Amino acid sequence: MHRVTRSSDADPTERLIADAESWPGVETAPHRFSATEFRLFGREFGHVHRGGVLDVNFPKPVRDHLIESKYATRHRFAPDTGWTTYDLRTPDDLDGGLWLLRLAYTYRLATKRTRPEAEDLLEDVDLDAEIRALGLDSELSGVFERLLAR
């Protein structure tokens, strides 16, 4: 289950990285432009730049809903892709950034749940509890319901 790292003195970017590194299966790696990349099953699902710009990848219909609902904005350099952007400038922005990154993480878990490489990881993660903990609106809940019905 998701736990936010709390330290009033920590930079929100550093706090986001530390929290995400604690999620089962997540690996971090250097990324272009002074960023840290988040990977699951060897594939990037997001990255955060040192200046506090969080970029997270989703399928386009999910990206569109996140933008329409003001959870994120279009990626400034790749606006026609599934990438979204979230500004992580102050400690008050941390929860929104963690929610967005956790949404992408949970989506990746759900899409890979039937593959052999996910078997060990899903022993440590209750996917249904992860989805409930996100507190999704009806549109995003429907995305997961359709995904899990496959």
What report would you give on this structure?
InterPro entries: Luciferase_dom. The chain has a single domain (about 10-150), classed as Aspartate Aminotransferase, domain 1 (Alpha-Beta Complex). Strands 1-2-3-4-6-5 form a 6-stranded antiparallel β-sheet. The protein has helices at about 10-20, 60-70, 95-110, 120-125, 125-135, 140-150, and strands at about 25-30, 35-40, 45-50, 55, 75, 85. The chain has about 150 residues and is α+β, with helices and mostly antiparallel strands. Mean pLDDT is about 90; it is low at about 1-10.
Task: Give short descriptive properties of this protein.
single chain; 150 residues; alpha+beta; Aspartate Aminotransferase, domain 1; six-stranded antiparallel sheet
Short description:
Helices cover 42% and strands 20% of the residues. It is an alpha+beta fold.
SSE layout and pairing:
Elements: H1 12-21, E1 27-31, E2 35-40, E3 43-49, E4 53-57, H2 60-68, E5 73-74, E6 83-87, H3 94-112, H4 119-124, H5 127-133, H6 138-149
Antiparallel strand pairs: 1-2, 2-3, 3-4, 4-6, 5-6
| Structural class by secondary-structure content | alpha+beta
Oligomer: single chain
Q: How far from one another are the termini? A: 24 Å
Q: Find the count of extended strands (DSSP E, 2+ residues).
A: 6
Q: Helix count, per DSSP? A: 6
The coarse overall form would be: globular
Largest sheet: 6 strands, antiparallel
Calculate Rg over CA atoms.
15 Å
What is the name of the CATH topology? Aspartate Aminotransferase, domain 1
Unreliable stretches: 1-8
| CATH architecture identity | Alpha-Beta Complex
By CATH reckoning, the class would read: Alpha Beta
Q: Helix content range of the residues, please?
A: 40-55%
